[in-house]
Each structure stands twice: as structure tokens, then as C-alpha cells.
Amino acid sequence: MTSERRITWIVAAVATLALAAFLFGPVLKEKVAPEPVAAWVAIQPAGATAATLGPVDLAAGTSFRLHAVLEAKDGSESVFYTEAPALERAGHTLPAASVRPWDRRPDVRILWFTVEGAVPFLRIQPDQTLDRFRYAAFFRPEWGFGWSVPGILDPAHDARLSREDRQVRRPFGSQHYQVHIELRSDADAEVASERLVSWGLGEVQSRVEEFPRVVATLPGAAGPASAMFGLTQLELSPEAPPEARRQLAEWTGERLAFGRVPLLAEIYRSAGRNAAEVDWQRIDLVAGRPWDDFAVGDLLRVGDRFVTLFRDAADAGEVGVLDREDLCFDFAQGSAVRALKDVFEDLGGDVEWASMSVSGAPATP
After folding, report:
1. Could you read off the pLDDT of 86-133 as tens digits, one per residue?
2. Distance between terminal CA atoms of the chain?
3. Going by fewer Cβ within 10 Å, which terminus of the chain is more open, N or C?
4. Which residues contact 321 (CB under 8 A, 6 or more apart)?
5. Nearest to 58 by CA among 72, 47, 74
């Protein structure tokens, strides 16, 4: 064989190998790549350098992002595919070498869900138990289908409420999150070849300390009331057994659902009081009184109907004066922000007021 023919054969062989690597390399790479085993949700508050695999508590108004995380096994080692810059679990940062963006062949589609009570309000009848309460997973396509999306607290229930009761987006409340990660052979495939689903209905109650959820609260005594937004309110009958009342109190503290009685008890505790120590004073909402005398989180009541004072309404009523136009947190049948006049509409201006300020100095509305 002449040197020219030998060179031609070498060039042809190299070209063939290069073509084979181009055509089959991704397939071979995928076959030896880490095996997908689980999907997780990570939460990254604004300013944080890592996202947390688990629950996060925030001050009201703090923005955050949700990151989908696909865990894969490479032998005995885990690899976490995500757009999060770093991951934390149970207070420990995962090794940086195990966290990487998705760079493999199958096309990925991310579906975001919230896990919420199936209804915003549920009355438990005397012949029923708390087992009647159910969670549901709500698909949130309006969030997009990316690996990372802005975190939103809005409950899916809002879309099913009347225009009068629909709540505007608020910077406080509780929300639980779930993600589906679909692997497809290519971008045009109609059916996923594999789907991994993070914790959902079966784990939201059994894994309270680990489930991905955000609770964003106002400071001080307003904190417990602000945390109830997004949760189902459960109303027990007067004949409910003690174990049902204890269970509802636990759920209220765990931000799974809530009842008015355990919420009121938590408001008292947050203010360093018990029911016997609360000083209720009669005030007149029609006469008006300077807002400086009150604090966000203070309680107003008539009979057994109580509300938490929220905000001086700048677009109605008299600014700087507590009056019927001002806003409160109301828990008549699910959490809502309402004007005081809409809660106490048939009761004139007389209500009872109790300060919940721990220091005695009112908070700024």
C-alpha cells in the first residue's frame, strides 16, 4: 500500500470515528450517566446563596424562588441537577461537586403544583371527624415550565371564589409546593418516557419538618394571623371531642390547616398573654381614635367574632384615625382581608379592643 493510500485510509477512518462519536456519543453518554431517582423542590429566599430542600420561614414581603431538583445516582453517590447555585438540606450544604445544571440529552419539562386544602373552609359536623379534611394538588401552569420560577404564595382557591371574596396578591401567608419532572426522548415527544414527582399529598402531613413550604409572616402579634392565609379553616362543632381539638391545635401550629380557637390562643401567646390577662376595652369606630393608639395585630371583637387589626385604609375613611373603613384580618369562613364596616356592619361603632403589643408601644400600620 502506497503512502498516499495509507493516508487516505487513515483520514477515512478518523472521519468515520468522528461521525460515530457525533451520532452515538450522546446515547452512550446517557447510558453511563447518573440514574434519575427522585424529584425535589428547593426554596431560595432573596439574598440567600443557597436554596433549601425543605421548609422556609420568611418575613412578609421577602421574595423567593422555587427550584426544581432532579436527584440522580452515580453508583452510591447522588448528583443533583438544578439551576440553584447551591443546595442546603437539614442545615448542611451539599457538596458543590454534586450540584450541577441539567446537561443531558433527554428533553425535560417541569410542572409546578401547590398542595393545599381541597377547600378554603370546611365545617366539621358533629357526626364527622377531622379525617374529612383532604389536601389536593393544584397545577399552576401560569408559573411557567422552567427549572426555576418566582415563588408565589397565592392559593389556587382564589380562582374559585366570588369577585367580592377574591384576595389580591399579598406578601404573607403559607404555601406548600410540589414539582413534576418529565423526561422525554425529544422536545416533540407527546408522552414522557419517565416522570419523577416530589413529595405531595401523602407526605404533607407526615413530613411536616421536611416538606417544602413557605410561611411568610408579619412581625409581632400579627404574625400568627398573617400565616393563616392560604390554609384551610376548619370549624369544629361544640360537641367535638378533646382529641379533635388537640389535633386542630397541632395543625394550626404546623401551618397545615387552622381553627379560630387555636389561632386566638396562638395570638395571645405571641403577645405574651393568656386569655385571663387580656384587657378588653370598649371603643367607638364611628367617633374615631388616632391610629397611634393601636398596633397591627391588635384584636377587635363583638361577641365571639374577632378580627386582627391590619392597616389604616389610605384610600377611604380618615387617614391616621381608626374608623370603619380600615382593614382587618377576618376568619369568619376562611381567611380574608376586609374593611371593619363589612365585618361589623350591623353593630354600629361599638366594638371591644385588646392591645396585643408586647412592649406596649404600637407597631407602625
Report:
1. 999 999 999 999 999 999 988 899 999 999 999 999 999 998 999 999
2. 93
3. N
4. 288, 289, 290, 291, 312
5. 47
